[in-house]
Design the sequence.
């Protein structure tokens, strides 16, 4: 693609993200990549014809498994909604820290 164009098979999504679909061998993968989110890098939906898995990739390199029943609409979910689904919350901008913190059960 030319500079500024999306690659073939890609489309724009909310929150300055793009969604790309591709096949990897026997798997079909839909990837939503976040361009400017400080914590969330991307979310992958991996389908093999029988099962569907979700992987949430953080910018610090951590990869989390996402619950399939709650991430079905990952292409329209807010970044905070995705992080909440995998059990993370982000410290607010009031303290200037965007570090993910695991939610603890009350």
Sequence:
């Amino acid at each position: 693609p030319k500079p500024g164009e999306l690659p073939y098979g890609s489309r724009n999504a909310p929150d300055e993200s793009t969604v790309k679909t591709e096949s990897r061998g026997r798997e079909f993968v839909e990837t939503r990549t976040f361009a400017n989110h400080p914590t969330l890098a991307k979310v992958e939906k991996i389908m093999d014809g029988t099962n569907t898995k979700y992987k949430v990739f953080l910018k610090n390199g951590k990869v989390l498994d996402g619950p399939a029943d709650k991430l079905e609409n990952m292409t329209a979910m807010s970044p905070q909604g995705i992080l909440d689904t995998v059990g993370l919350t982000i410290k607010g901008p009031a303290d200037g820290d965007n570090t993910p913190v695991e939610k603890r059960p009350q």
